[in-house]
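Lay summary

Proteins are chains of building blocks that fold into shapes. Our project writes down both the chain and a compact code for its shape. Here are two examples, one after the other.
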Amino acid sequence: MSPVLLDTGPIIALLDQSDPDHEFAIAQAGRVSGRLLTSGAVVTETMFLAADLRHGPERVLDFLASSQVDILVSNAGRNVFDGGRLALLQDS
């Protein structure tokens, strides 16, 4: 299975019932079967936009953790996956 790269828009649409694409995002999420990937930049942008939602940042972290999304980060020019770091962020 090919990995699936998550961007900000679909994450927000999944979490925000008032988003015009919420139902579409829910339907598409049910079809995903590959490894879920995102970037630190997407997490940052998603957290910023989610600040307008009730418990938004907490819901973003819960979604990322429960979906076992791997966060692609850059380390000295190399890309690494850092899914374990999310648990540390969630506890702080």
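And here is the second example, written the same way.
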Amino acid sequence: MSKGPSLSRSCQTVVAGLRRAAQGLASLKGMPAYSSDGKNLGNVVEVVRGPDGTLQAVKIEGRPLPGIGDRIVTVDGNALEQLGDRIRLRLNGDAVRSLPEAPKQ
């Protein structure tokens, strides 16, 4: 019995890349988040992905001052970068503090 055609080499490469990316997104949860000016803002509590698995946003639970206070904010995925065991936002501490609180679920 034939299994049918398998994926081409280029498709296999794309699928492998997507799997690695998805694993990387999952590993963001729990990471500390720092502002562009070096302030520890809190930890990532949720990773929001689009239908294609790409990073859309992260939710960060703030630490008491000088971070974002004791609340959760949503940060666009384009405004951050992963640096080993932490993420750094492309926003300074004041900009993050001015973000609205994320809606309760």
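What can we say about the second shape? Residues 23 and 79 are 20 Å apart (CA to CA).
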